[in-house]
Design goal:
Blueprint lengths: L2 H15 L4 H4 L54 H7 L7 H24 L13 E7 L4 E5 L4 E4 L8 E4 L5 E9 L9 E5 L4 E6 L4 H4 L15 E7 L5 E5 L9 E9 L6 E6 L6 E7 L5 E8 L6 E9 L2 E3 L7 E3 L4 E5 L10 E8 L4 E10 L2 E9 L5 E11 L2 H7 L11 E6 L5 E9 L2 E3 L6 E4 L4 E5 L6 E21 L8 E6 L8 E4 L5 E7 L5 E9 L8 E5 L5 E4 L7 E10 L3 E8 L3 E6 L8 E6 L3
Antiparallel strand pairs: 1-37, 2-9, 3-4, 5-8, 5-10, 6-7, 6-9, 10-11, 12-18, 13-17, 13-19, 14-15, 14-16, 14-18, 19-20, 21-27, 22-26, 22-27, 23-24, 23-25, 23-27, 27-28, 29-34, 30-33, 30-35, 31-32, 31-34, 35-36
Amino acid sequence: MSESRRERREAERTAGRNGLPTDTAKSGLTEAGESAAPAAPAPAVPDGSVSPEAPRQDVDLEQQPVVAAAASTAPEAETAESTGLARGRKTKPANRKVLGFVGSAAVLCLGAAVIAGGSIFAAEFPAQGAATEVTTLPAGDSLATCPASVRLLKGAGAELDPEFAPASKDSKSLIRAAALSDSAGRIPGAHLLKLDGSQLRELAPRLDEADAATLAGAAADGFSQRKGVVAGGISEAEALTLRTQPLGGLQSLSGAARFYSAKDGDLAGLSAAGCSAPAAESWITGATTTAGSTAILHLTNPSASVTQVDIDLRGSEGRIETPNLDAIAIAPGEAKSFVLAAYAPNEKSLALKIVASGGKINAIIQQSTLRGLVPGGVDYLVAGTPAANQQVIPGLVLQDPVLAGELAKPAANADAIAELHVAATSSEGATVKVKALGANGEVAIPGGGELVVSSNSTARLPLTGMPAGNYTLVLESDSAISAGAKMVRGTKANEAMDMAWAASASRIGNEHLVPLPEFGSARLVLNAPADEASITLRPLGKDGKLGAEKKIELAGSRTVVVKAGDLGSDVAAIVMSASGAPAYAATLVEDGAVGIAAVPLGASPVGRTGVQVQLRH
């Protein structure tokens, strides 16, 4: 008798002693010499196909719970006992294998009955956690809140809701807003509202809701029927919200910005900030609370819900404990202000994480410097892009390095230098490599352009000694960071100068509407750091008419500057879109000999949003 026949005969005798049919033993032997249970046939699924074969295993009814019939069509997970065999652990007795085999067969039969009969048990609700199909929701009204005008702080040391006074007698603070029609020429309803919900200015009347919900056709070129509406000269000092009606279930294209300028007073200088949508989380990096510097955080709730805000501060030594900045309640239509020096004094670089729950908010910092009696600059610090391993900061302009060195020579002017501020947003810290991209591509940063930031702290990288010009900074980090850059503009060290902050920006999307100031000069700073991109610019005149498009090609990591005057006269706003590699933009504004401000490009309108609903019971 051959060896294989002898083993088969022995297997049959063993099966007989255990009460199994001898055919079971003939199905094969495991590597350990024990008989293996036959694989159950793959059950049919409702569409007639066959599910993948489940792995062979022993089921212990004493250890395994009863499974639902519907689960029988899924491949079974490997049990602890089947894995235990591979690890040399002792398997269960054979009688448990018999019970496992019978139990598995019963489950399969029950599954077959469900498929054949449609259902045995009435299933009125999906199983817990079952996801339905994605439900598409039309876009609602878009909200963009403009910050309050720059104001002089009265009563230094006030922590919450300090008193303010006008900046100076000759200061001017104006909001410009614009809205664009859809491709069928319909202008959406657009209104500037006060925080209490009352209307200050109507840009365009609201359309009938049924008509507005209809997605209209377009001209062959997509632009010939488009037109806009522009509102300027809005001198309201308090925060305002631009509310714009959606058309065809999509958010309409609109935009607004505030521009401030003063020639005298403690807040002499130029400030600018785009009106932005409220957010659940914001990062602002670069505030300063040293002697002579004042940083005031303004929080605004334009929504109809009460919101609770938590503010997390990071300084050069790490996190700053501020229990008084937790769980701050802000009512609908309410604004609150905080003097940051009361919570984090003598910080040369301060980063804020602002988290809102219940309703979204707008957060912005008014930053100003006074060196004795000489104004040192004023600006808004706006929220940049969310913390990430890469940040791109367009819109940085540097003066001649010799002049920049002269401005910073006096001890009182030690902080009057261009520098990059970076915050590590986690306990890992961050090692950051910085590239400066100028008109001809990358420019070397003195010192190598590398910055190490400690856990949950901030650090600064001086940008002194670099050639004059317009730049885009690209930051690559081994962990998530937030960043902003400071620039300085002046003529003499002992005279007034101005400072501005550039925030990290989102890539240019399908369409953006960029409002331009009513005073000073403006230019766009563009860059595609990684590859080639094509930018399309269309001017929107004060009369609401769109001008001819202008194409800008970006390549070689070169920063390109486009003056607003190059697009035509009386340009109130610019319609911008991009194609190709990721590209970034900022509006750089200058006024007089020293005034300077930068506005990063805001987010493009959103379309219909998909929501996945989960039913639980």
